[in-house]
Design a protein that fits this description.
The chain is an alpha/beta fold. 45% of the residues lie in helices and 13% in strands. The protein is built from 18 helices and 14 strands. The strands form 3 sheets. The chain has a 6-stranded parallel sheet, sandwiched between helices. A 6-stranded parallel sheet has the order 11-10-9-12-13-14, with helices on both faces. Helix 14 links the parallel strand 10 and strand 11. The relative contact order is 0.09. Bound molecules: nicotinamide-adenine-dinucleotide. Nicotinamide-adenine-dinucleotide binds next to helix 1 and helix 5. The site of nicotinamide-adenine-dinucleotide has 27 residues, from helix 1 and helix 5.
Length: 438
């Protein structure tokens, strides 16, 4: 199959490279000429484990190309995937669909034979129909179908998720489009991946329902963690105790500073907006958004309280800035709430993140970036763990203690063992963990 991927960001680039690995001929298009120039030189503009090799192998095999103009790629394609951004629209919280509709209008002009135009971007219900309308209006003679194929990959594990998904959801409404989509995902038949074929609206709603459910699960355990802190219970044991119930499941029961990232915040907002418009308000999701926003703000206060009510004049060593480990993505990261609030309270922030400092440097001001976690510890009056990078779990608490003037840690990801930390003489506070009995 020949595939054109419109948008070569986190999703477009990973999807394009993985489709090439399936054996298809893929052209990844992006408006960002700098991004495409780097990709053509073999540079990967984002941090995603394994992506560099996948791109290099498939480019070398002649199955993966990059360009800034979609015309030739679309004209030759059996399927065109739209993988452009759908950020939150300013003002009302709805998804900004201008990139999707802009791409649809451009694609329309270049359709040269039967083509399936697939929305891979996360889009509110009704978008697929509007994409079809835009194409029909711009090119009435075009032979095409639209399809919805939402993406469920997780940044940091994106390739594994794409190549071995739990399921593939495909919204199609013609046999011809279904055959094209089945052909594209045929390699997954070997590993018996469930294919969920639906109508277009169902596929669109499924993506938002999935993200809203996961965001709800995180928010639920975060509130249980607050309760645990007040009553001397341990949220880790509670999470294990409920998570082993097969109806609940163990994943997404890790308490922390609130969900962030490029998907959950914007997708919960967009779902709430769509649902209000449809007169079927999602009150649980609305509450999740509110609780989560408040939680991110509360985390700075947790650090301030831990320091005795003030961080004025203190240096706060921050470990981790990205919204989760194994990515350089800073979109809606909890650190973007926590760091400025600590600075506003008079603290000086020294930070280390394995991959996110370049991006963080563009967004956060007044932060001193250092090269290692130990360097941050050496300068800090208090350390705050915001992202649970694997390498932080391997830090030697004794070395941290030696480096610090006064060993104090607020661990917003519970990467350290409270008993061990207290035993070593740290002032230590996690999330939802009991304080030692005195
Ligand atoms: N990031 C994730 O983990 C993830 C997971 C699942 C779904 N999604 C969804 O996938 C979509 C893309 O997300 P992302 O994180 O890859 O975004 P991104 O911002 O990293 O990438 C989008 C790219 O599209 C390009 N673009 C915009 N308009 C264009 C046009 N007309 N022609 C060519 N290129 C164009 C931009 O330059 C940018 O490089 C969003 O809807 C998102 O919600 C993201």
């Amino acid at each position: 199959m020949r595939i054109a991927m419109i948008g070569s960001g986190y999703v477009g680039l990973v999807s394009g490279a993985c489709f090439a690995q399936f054996g298809h001929d893929v052209t990844c298009i992006d408006k960002d000429a700098d991004k495409i120039a780097r990709l053509r030189k073999g540079e990967i503009p984002i941090y995603e484990p394994g992506l560099d090799k996948l791109v290099a192998d498939n480019a070398k095999a002649g199955r993966l190309e990059f360009g800034t103009s979609l015309h030739d790629a679309v004209a030759a394609a059996d399927a065109v995937f739209i993988a452009v951004g759908t950020p939150t629209r300013r003002g009302d919280g709805h998804a900004d669909l201008s990139y999707v509709y802009g791409a649809a209008a451009e694609i329309a002009k270049s359709i040269a034979h039967y083509t399936v135009v697939v929305t891979k971007s996360t889009v509110p219900v009704g978008t697929g129909r509007e994409v079809a309308r835009i194409i029909r209006e711009a090119h009435p003679a075009a032979e095409f179908d639209v399809a919805s194929n939402p993406e469920f990959l997780r940044e940091g594990a994106a390739i594994e998720d794409f190549m071995k998904p739990d399921r593939v959801v495909i919204g199609v409404e013609s046999q011809r489009a279904r055959e094209v989509m089945s052909g594209i995902y045929r390699p997954l038949n070997l590993i018996q991946t469930p294919m969920v074929f639906t109508n277009i609206e169902t596929a669109e709603v499924t993506k938002y329902a999935g993200n809203a459910f996961l965001a709800t699960k995180i928010t639920f355990i975060n509130e249980i963690a607050d309760l645990c802190e007040k009553v001397g219970a341990d949220v880790h044991d509670v999470a294990r105790g409920i998570g082993l119930d097969g109806r609940i499941g163990r994943k997404f029961l890790h308490p922390g500073p609130g969900f962030g990232g490029s998907c959950f915040p914007k997708d919960t907002l967009a779902l709430a907006y769509t649902a209000r418009e449809a007169k079927a308000p999602q009150t649980i999701v609305e509450q999740v958004i509110e609780v989560n926003n408040a939680r991110k703000k509360k985390m700075a206060q947790k650090v301030i309280d831990f320091c005795g009510g003030s961080v004025a004049g203190l240096t706060i060593g921050v470990l981790g800035l990205t919204f989760k480990p194994n990515t350089d993505d800073m979109r809606d990261a909890p650190s973007l709430d926590i760091v400025p609030a600590l600075q506003a309270a008079g603290g000086k922030v020294v930070a280390f993140d394995p991959e996110g400092m370049h991006e963080a440097g563009r967004i956060l001001s007044g932060v001193t970036f250092v090269k290692t976690a130990y360097e941050a510890a050496a300068q800090a009056d208090v350390l705050v763990v915001i992202t649970e990078w694997h390498e932080f779990r391997g830090l030697d608490p004794r070395r941290i203690k030696e480096a610090m003037r006064r060993p104090r840690i607020v661990d917003l990801r519970n990467i350290f063992d409270p008993e061990e930390m207290h035993g070593l003489g740290f002032d230590y506070e996690g999330v939802g963990r009991p304080q030692p009995r005195t």
